[in-house]
């Protein structure tokens, strides 16, 4: 399973959009506290539309608490400071749990944590001279859809979805 992990997210609309993406791609969403908003904030709810009832979400008290839950799964730290691009990784084994940790919108992931784990860091190429960072919800979509592409979009095939709709 693919897991989207947000470290101390501060913008409710981003989290709502990411929750919608997580639901659309059958990913679990993890939020690491403190959050910069309440989950029932109208901006979060509005961005997530009526999909909130389908979001597979887990809250973690802090980064160490989250890290204690992932066992031997792959962890990727998404940061513009990484050397390796997100598309240089082989994600094709869909049976493996993978966690993609995205930093806070304003300050990213803790610098000391990044320095201790540079081999886990991946980045989305961008022009750093003119843009500080990409929008968080866009970044999540860019990385996770590459993962899904390599996994042949298992579980997201049009025929599969159509059959589910016929059963309703």
From TrEMBL:
Pfam families linked: SpoU_methylase
Keyword Methyltransferase found: yes
Enzymatic class: transferase
EC number: 2.1.1.207
Keywords associated with the record: Cytoplasm, Methyltransferase, S-adenosyl-L-methionine, Transferase, tRNA processing
Principal localisation: cytoplasm
GO biological process, one term: wobble position ribose methylation
Catalytic activity: 5-carboxymethylaminomethyluridine(34) in tRNA(Leu) + S-adenosyl-L-methionine = 5-carboxymethylaminomethyl-2'-O-methyluridine(34) in tRNA(Leu) + S-adenosyl-L-homocysteine + H(+); cytidine(34) in tRNA + S-adenosyl-L-methionine = 2'-O-methylcytidine(34) in tRNA + S-adenosyl-L-homocysteine + H(+)
Protein location: Cytoplasm
InterPro entries the record matches: Alpha/beta_knot_MTases (IPR029028), SpoU_MeTrfase (IPR001537), TrmL (IPR016914), tRNA_m1G_MTases_N (IPR029026)
Residue intervals of the tRNA/rRNA methyltransferase SpoU type domain: 3-145
Organism superkingdom: Bacteria
Cellular component per GO, a single term: cytoplasm
GO molecular function: identical protein binding; RNA binding; tRNA (5-carboxymethylaminomethyluridine(34)-2'-O)-methyltransferase activity; tRNA (cytidine(34)-2'-O)-methyltransferase activity
Residues the record lists as binding S-adenosyl-L-methionine: 78, 103, 124, 133
Claim: Cytoplasm is one of the keywords in the record: yes
Family of this protein: Belongs to the class IV-like SAM-binding methyltransferase superfamily. RNA methyltransferase TrmH family. TrmL subfamily.
Primary role: Could methylate the ribose at the nucleotide 34 wobble position in tRNA.
Protein name: Putative tRNA (cytidine(34)-2'-O)-methyltransferase
Originating species: Oenococcus kitaharae DSM 17330
Taxonomic lineage: Bacteria, Bacillati, Bacillota, Bacilli, Lactobacillales
């Amino acid at each position: 399973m693919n897991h989207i992990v947000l470290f101390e997210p501060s913008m409710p609309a981003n989290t709502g959009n990411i929750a919608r993406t997580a639901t659309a791609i059958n990913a679990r969403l993890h939020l690491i506290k403190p959050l910069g908003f309440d989950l029932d904030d109208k901006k979060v709810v509005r961005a997530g539309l009526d999909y909130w009832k389908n979001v597979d979400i887990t809250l973690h008290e802090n980064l160490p608490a989250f890290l204690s839950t992932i066992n031997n799964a792959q962890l990727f730290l998404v940061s513009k400071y990484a050397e390796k691009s997100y598309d240089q990784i082989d994600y094709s084994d869909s049976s493996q749990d993978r966690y993609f940790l995205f930093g806070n919108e304003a300050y990213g992931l803790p610098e000391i944590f990044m320095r201790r784990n540079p081999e886990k860091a991946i980045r989305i190429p961008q022009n750093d001279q003119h843009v500080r960072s990409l929008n968080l919800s866009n970044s999540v979509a860019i990385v996770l859809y590459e993962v899904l592409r390599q996994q042949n979009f298992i579980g997201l095939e049009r025929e599969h979805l159509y059959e589910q709709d016929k059963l309703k």
